[in-house]
Write a structure and sequence with these properties.
4% helix; single chain; mainly beta; 1 helix
Length: 192
């Protein structure tokens, strides 16, 4: 359960926000290496801006994400999930409904007690009916956008020594305009 409220003074006026999320998740061991995963989440998000009515919206919805996790060994596991989300938006630009269907594959691999790798690949399709634009559309589609999109990430952490850690993060996604957005970040951390 997460319930947060915000009040922010900005150059574009006073902005208030509210975010309430209720999450229930669990897993059942089907056999020694295989587990069934279940997740259900409800959310209520609202935002109000004193100057720009295009930033005013109320979004509520739910998401269901069943899946399977397979432990290949002590250092390797694979996870498959499907998802269905339904959200409704009420804003000054109109009311809208969004339905998202997704399929996701995740993998984790630990090597030589020094390297941890995490890979994620998701295919998702979001259909929106009704009028929505701007910040409300961004929140309604979780920042991914409408249409069919592919989202991927690769995170790798290397512990060079007890004092030095190197992290590599590569993220990407497609958009409905067929653009590919990619980010790459390398972080070197030292403990003194």
């Amino acid at each position: 359960f997460n319930d947060s409220k915000s009040l922010t003074q900005r150059a574009v006026g006073v902005q208030t926000g509210s975010n309430r999320i209720i999450l229930a998740e669990g897993e059942i061991q089907l056999s020694q290496p295989l587990r069934f995963l279940g997740e259900y989440q409800t959310s209520d998000i609202s935002n109000t801006n004193s100057r720009f009515s295009t930033r005013n919206y109320d979004i509520s919805g739910y998401e269901i994400r069943p899946g399977l996790r397979l432990f290949l060994s002590r250092s390797a596991q694979v996870e498959w999930r499907t998802g269905y989300a339904h959200k409704t938006s009420e804003s000054t630009s109109g009311n809208a409904e969004a339905r998202t269907i997704s399929v996701e594959n995740r993998a984790q691999l630990f090597l030589f007690n020094r390297i941890q790798n995490r890979l994620s690949l998701m295919l998702r399709k979001t259909d929106i009916s009704g009028n929505v634009a701007g910040q409300a559309e961004y929140e309604l589609t979780e920042g991914i956008g409408r249409g069919t999109n592919i989202v991927w990430s690769l995170n790798s952490d290397y512990r060079a020594s007890s004092l030095l850690r190197i992290s590599l993060q590569y993220n990407g996604r497609t958009t409905s305009e067929s653009e590919i957005i990619q980010t790459l970040r390398l972080v070197v951390s030292a403990v003194f």
